Amino acid sequence: xxxxxxxxxxxxxxxxxxxxxxxxxxxxxxxxxxxxxxxxxxxxxxxxxxxxxxxxxxxxxxxxxxxxxxxxxxxxxxxxxxxxxxxxxxxxxxxxxxxxxxxxxxxxxxxxxxxxxxxxxxxxxxxxxxxxxxxxxxxxxxxxxxxxxxxxxxxxxxxxxxxxxxxxxxxxxxxxxxxxxxxxxxxxxxxxxxxxxxxxxxxxxxxxxxxxxxxxxxxxxxxxxxxxxxxxxxxxxxxxxxxxxxxxxxxxxxxxxxxxxxxxxxxxxxxxxxxxxxxxxxxxxxxxxxxxxxxxxxxxxxxxxxxxxxxxxxxxxxxxxxxxxxxxxxxxxxxxxxxxxxxxxxxxxxxxxxxxxxxxxxxxxxxxxxxxxxxxxxxxxxxxxxxxxxxxxxxxxxxxxxxxxxxxxxxxxxxxxxxxxxxxxxxxxxxxxxxxxx
Length: 438
Description:
Layout: E1 3-7, E2 10-13, E3 18-21, E4 26-29, H1 32-54, H2 56-62, H3 69-79, H4 82-94, H5 99-120, E5 125-127, E6 130-132, H6 134-153, H7 164-187, E7 192-198, E8 204-210, H8 217-240, H9 242-245, H10 254-263, H11 265-270, H12 276-301, H13 306-328, H14 335-357, H15 368-397, H16 401-428
Antiparallel strand pairs: 1-2, 2-3, 3-4, 5-6, 7-8
């Protein structure tokens, strides 16, 4: 009988659609409706942040920050990490007794935020004497709270179900980047041209003329809000629907846990030999992938045209789940592959930084070759980086809980550091210069 590897503790027998779970030490029958609900629940984890990034090529055209907007939003997203910190303090005092209402509250706040964003994303306010997208930045923060908190709140809520559905949840997280990017590609992006106008004094001047995309960001965010509603309903079904509640499993007793730990006790011993080099690689990867590069992407891509920025942003988002899908079926714990892909990331990063710092006149700016190359480099980097991050997590998982804890700490520190440095370079030192077509 053909056996498909779902994860380290789960094996799916396709012919009878039954799975052996080490949590329950028994065969459980996989239910399609639980797969659907957990997948849809997983979609709601990061779809808000992912959808925001897909709209940047349109938002920068009208935002008062212009090309600096991504650096502001990166900071707002990183501040969203206050969510896990607050939850950790809450859990220390109250335990997990209130996880269900907290999860519902987080999901509802996400739905509310994105629907408000649909109508208010272009509202500006004056801060320190300068106009800023205050509503967009504020709602970006509340939307980021959903994604940042999902790792400590959403995933544990699945502990009452067989472990096979955690894999389905992770598939949903991958779809959360895939779907908004596909919609954004269909949406298209406005093209900017220059036209000559005559001033009242008889002189002439060139001004920008931007054609509209197929539809604006407002309807796009409404569509994302509908998906978030579906994710919220999916969670409510998992928690309250009788058909779903009958599929829940009992939490293993302390004796069960002891028996399981006897078989994997060596894992804790290996935790003292954590691979510091892999943690350093993870820190460097997320420094660029989650922090610095999203802040400078507009400077790197926009000189090649709004269409280049549009495809670089959305195809990079699609590269993430594709890379994770490939890693799912390959030897993702191979350190040789990890370091080889890191070399590719270094090359592509150097090229992207070079184009950003030479803006508004980067190499091959007025050629099709330059446009294709800049899009390819962005997609290549994020594809390789996604594979590397997943691979490092798979390696450190074998080092015990401490390995994954350090992995999470390095990820947050690296991401925040990259976003702060990007903001400092762009808005304080003003080392990067935007390209004006007219």
